[in-house]
Each structure stands twice: as C-alpha cells, then as structure tokens.
Write a structure and sequence with these properties.
This protein is mainly alpha-helical. The chain contains 16 helices and no strands. The two termini are about 25 Å apart. It is found in: Cell membrane.
C-alpha cells in the first residue's frame, strides 16, 4: 500500500475512493441521459422506461456480492502477496456472473409480462415496458460481469481502470441512444439497445483484463461455491434495505401526493450522497482486506479507525453544506408549493444523519473488507425489523406523515451505528489470513 497500513493517509484513501465514486456515479448519470432522450417520445415511453429500469436495477442491486464480496476475497489474497490468486477470484466471479446472468436473462423473458403488469397494471405502459425489458434483459450477464470485474480490481487496489472501462461503454451509449431512439426511429427499443451496447463494451474490457493477466480461466466449483456463501449474506442484507425503502415509499404515497413528492426529492439526494460515502467504504474494504491478508491485524484496526474518522469528517461537511442549501436546493427539483412545504419534515433528518451515515458506511466497508458479511447481514436485518419497519408503519397508522417516515430512517441508521461501532471495538472481525476461515 506504500505506507504502514495503520497510518494510511487521506491521499491514499482518496486515490482509491475517487475513481470508485466515478464508477458508482456513471450509471445514474447515464440513466439521466437515457431518461432525457426517451422523455421526448412522450409520457408512455418515459413511464415504461421507469418500470423497466426499476426491474433491471433490482437485478444488480440484489447481486452486489459479485463486486463487494469479490473485493473482500481478492483484497486478502493481494495483501498476502498472492496477486495471481486474487485475480483468480475475479475469474471465478466472472464465471458466476455469466451463469447467473444467462439464467436471469432467460427467466426474465418469461417473467417480463407478469412483472410489468404487476408494477404498472394492464395497459400501454406495461406493454411498452415489456418491449423494453425483452431487449434490456440481454444485458444482464454483461452487467454482472462488470460488477465482478470491479470487485477483483478493487481488491488489488486498481480503481482507475474500472472507471475508464465503465465510462467508455456509457459514453458510447450516450451518443448512440439519441441516434437509435430519434434519428433512426427505433423509439423505446433503441434505448434498450443502447443500454445493452454499453454493458457489452464495459464487460468486454473487464474480460480482456482477465485474459492479459495470464491466469487460468477454467471454472473452479469450490471457489464459486465459497463466493456464493458470502453472496447469500449480502443478498439477504440487500433485501432488508429494499423492504425498508419500499415500505417508506408506500407509506409516503398513502399519506399524500405532496408527502410522496417531498420524500422522493429528499430520498434521491440521500441516495446520491450514499454513493459518495460508499466510495469511502470501498477504499476501506480494499485497505482492510489487504492488511488482514498480510497478517497485520493491528494495521487493519488502525486503518479501520482512521477511515472512520475520515467518514465522520466527510459526513459533518456534507451535513453543513446541505443545511445551508435547505432553502434554494429543493426549489431546483419542484416549484410545487405543497411539496416544498412538506420537504422540511424530512430535510433536517437528512442533514442530521449525514455524520451518522459517514461513520456507518466507513465501518460497513471495514467489516466487508474483513469478510464479516454475516454480522452485517444480522445487524441490517435487525435494525430494519426493530427500528425502521415498525416506526414507518406506525407513522401511517398514527398519521405522523413524512416526519414519521424519517424518524424510522433515523432509528434504522442509529441502530446500525451502534451495531457496527460495537463490532469494530470488539476486534473480533480482524481475522488474519489470505482467506477468512
């Protein structure tokens, strides 16, 4: 790592975090371009894109273990000086991505109609969404290959190359999308084709990167099975997140249109800042995994607390910035007076939670780097069941509105904070070795 691991500098963390942030932000930025292009086709295609996009996003959201789990395993091997084996984790994750991706793409062809109907009801929006999905789902294996590629490259502390690969695919697709949709007259299907094109290009770069490493490209069932074990914990954790945010959206929608609109505005800002803070977690994951793989548990603990301090400072800074923007920023999203009147009920929770989020995300990265996914699974599910979900649905029953929803989110974050701080202080996560036993 170029420094004693316990004395990791802010520059070292940023060198890993900033390119990782670029990768995390690339997809949402491309979605904005895609939305703007399709939006000129009219309301029905735009609504269909929203439905199809939600379905495809769920695929990648639930399978993040292909990136985060692979980073954890590869980082330990890299820290032990076994780069070829670290890259081999990427090979096996890529095989797993292909196998799972092909199955999902094929099953998706059968499920596209029922799923679109469930989300949008019967009618032209659902029909158009199915049309988009039937093409877009062919990109699923390539999406997952890219996730696996990001995982092993983060593990060997290379975050600049993944950024170039992802930007190359998305940049070409951003040019291709308006041509296909409007100039060549393919309409909504053109959007799906442009999406798949981006995914194929990015995945191609990651596969090429594996080939030039000159490691064995044969599948190894034992390693794939081990990755699936870690993946199970991360999938269950992800499902807990989804249950929380779907419940919050449902309660907001049942409260009032203004509350739902205000929740959407603040939640999108929360999601954006989560990407920013998650880049710090990725750096922590890579550095901690490498330290433990090298047998340096003391250094790993040092990295953990140093990165946690960075997360706290970063979170406080974000809180101050968005407190200052409380007046003008919401008006950039909507001129609706009723929505603007509701936003403060969520806004000050959003601001106050940034320092908490900075610490929680940093320690999430630390524990993921240590391979402590089972603890994170239990902590997240427990915080959701004890904190978020009861408060959110109680808010609906008692008419607490948007304030109640964000009290639930605050409870969720504070419980997670208590859990990860206690785990970090215990030191039980700092298990040394190239592979966590």
């Amino acid at each position: 790592m170029g420094e004693r691991s316990g004395q990791v500098s802010a520059r070292s963390v940023l060198a890993l975090a900033l390119p990782a942030l670029g990768v995390l932000a690339a997809e949402p930025l491309y979605v904005l371009v895609d939305t703007a292009v399709v939006g000129h086709l009219g309301a029905v295609p735009l609504a269909a894109l929203a439905v199809g996009g939600v379905v495809l996003t769920q695929v990648s959201t639930q399978l993040t273990f292909l990136s985060y789990g692979t980073t954890s395993r590869a980082a330990r091997l890299h820290g032990a000086g076994r780069r070829a084996e670290a890259v081999a984790e990427g090979v096996q994750a890529t095989w797993l991505a292909v196998l799972v991706g092909v199955v999902l793409a094929l099953v998706g062809q059968l499920a596209a109609g029922p799923v679109a109907g469930l989300l949008a009801g019967r009618g032209e929006v659902a029909d158009a969404a199915v049309e988009w999905l039937r093409v877009g789902l062919f990109g699923t294996p390539f999406i997952l290959v890219t996730m696996a590629g990001n995982g092993w490259m983060r593990g060997v502390q290379e975050t600049a190359r993944p950024l170039r690969y992802v930007l190359a695919g998305n940049a070409l697709s951003a040019v291709l999308c308006p041509l296909l949709v409007h100039v060549w007259g393919w309409g909504l299907v053109g959007s799906a084709v442009a999406n798949v094109t981006a995914q194929v290009i990015s995945a191609g770069f990651f596969v090429r990167a594996l080939v030039v490493e000159r490691v064995s490209l044969r599948p190894e069932p034992a390693r794939i099975w081990a990755q699936l074990g870690l993946g199970r914990d991360l999938v269950l954790r992800s499902l807990a997140f989804q249950a929380c945010f779907v419940s919050a959206a449902s309660v907001a929608a049942r409260t009032s249109a203004a509350a739902a609109g205000a929740h959407q505005v603040v939640l999108q800002l929360w999601t954006f800042l989560a990407l920013v803070l998650d880049s710090l977690a990725i750096a922590a994951q890579s550095l901690v995994g490498a330290a433990l793989g090298g047998g340096d548990d003391r250094g790993a603990r040092g990295v953990a607390w140093r990165v946690t301090k960075y997360g706290l400072v970063f979170g406080v800074a974000l809180g101050v910035v968005f407190a200052a923007l409380a007046g003008p920023l919401p008006r950039l999203f909507t001129p609706d007076a009723a929505v603007l009147a509701e936003i403060p009920h969520a806004w000050w929770f959003f601001v106050a939670l940034q320092p908490v989020a900075g610490v929680v995300f940093a320690l999430d990265g630390v524990l993921l780097g240590a391979g402590d996914a089972a603890f994170l699974r239990n902590a997240t599910i427990g915080s959701a069941v004890v904190g978020f979900l009861p408060v959110v649905w109680l808010a609906l029953a008692l008419g607490w509105g948007l304030t109640g929803i964000w009290i639930g989110l605050a409870a969720f974050m504070v419980l997670r904070l208590a859990a990860v701080l206690a785990r970090a202080r215990s030191g039980r996560w700092a298990v040394v070795g190239a592979v966590r036993g």
